[in-house]
Amino acid sequence: MMSIVGIIFLVGILGYAAALVIGLNHERNFALPHEKIPRVGMVIVALSLILLGLAVSSFFLIDWNNLVAI
Amino acid sequence: MISLHPNEQIMLTLHRHWVVLAGRMVLLALLALVPVFLFPFYSTLLFFIVPGSQFVFFLFLASIYWLVVLLFFFIEWLDYWLDVWIVTSERILDIEQRGLFWRRASEFMIDRCQDVTIETPGFFATFFKYGNITVQTAGEVSFTAYTVAHPDHAKKIILSCADERHKIIASRL
């Protein structure tokens, strides 16, 4: 069970990271000459890292052998 | 990065009005609060799935849910930030971004601008001073920017830039 959820989780995280990188790249490449690069992307990255840390740490703390209904 | 011609100046940039973005952000903020509202009931909700470690499992599900909401927030922000009209002293650039992968950029010379129409669609638009602005070009193609802030001000700037450009072109002849 843990390995199946782990693979799905990993694929999801990779997809998420790809979307984030594409978004940040757009934000940088398509900014106007006089505009500063908006910091919203950086805030999103910081929040994502915090949530990712939470998700990964809780993933390893779950007693996967005890799951009964999934 | 958008490149400008020599001596070309940006006169105006038009994004959608912040109210339009705020409406979507409020919806996303409410969605982000769902796990907070479910928190008091997590042990009951998850008891039959994970008898031992409900809190950690709830934290795992909540963090994945928040990551998804955050990604939607980022996509909404990009859609708002990169969807822009740029009025320069020589041309108008209409850039439209949809999601992460769809982008359209059109531009036309400002001296080809024939008439500019503004539209205030409804109560909220009147109250928050936003509206749609349509520029008709000489090629009978029209470009419309939706829900931009202060469209009357934008109209004045576009018309004055077009007028200036006509004068410059006339002086060269």
Rg of chain B, rounded, reads: 23 Å
Global structural class of chain B: alpha+beta
List how many beta strands of chain A DSSP finds: 0
CATH architecture of the largest domain in chain B: Roll
Determine the number of helices of chain A (DSSP H or I, runs of at least 4 residues): 2
- Low-confidence parts of chain B: none
Provide the spatial order of strands within the biggest beta sheet of chain B.
1-2-3-4
For the biggest sheet of chain B, the summary is: 4 strands, antiparallel
Structure report:
The complex is a heterodimer of chains A (70) and B (173). With 70 residues, chain A is mainly α. Chain A has helices spanning 2-29, 40-61. The longest helix of chain A has 28 residues, at 2-29. The model of chain A has no long low-confidence stretch (mean pLDDT 82). Chain B has 173 residues and is α+β, with helices and mostly antiparallel strands. Chain B has a four-stranded antiparallel beta sheet with strand order 1-2-3-4. In chain B, strands 5-6-7 form a three-stranded antiparallel beta sheet. The model of chain B has no long low-confidence stretch (mean pLDDT 87). Chain A binds chain B through residues 9, 12, 16, 19-20, 22-23, 26-27, 29-35, 38, 40-41, 44, 47-48, 51-52, 54-55, 58-59, 61-63, 66-70, and chain B through 1-4, 10, 13, 48-53, 56-57, 59-60, 63-64, 66-67, 70-71, 73-75, 77-78, 81-82, 84, 86, 95, 97, 100-101, 103.
Q: Which key phrases capture this entry?
A:
heterodimer, A: 70 residues, mainly alpha, 2 helices, 71% helix, B: 173 residues, alpha+beta, PH-domain like, 2 domains, 4-stranded antiparallel β-sheet, 3-stranded antiparallel β-sheet, 6 helices, 7 strands, 47% helix
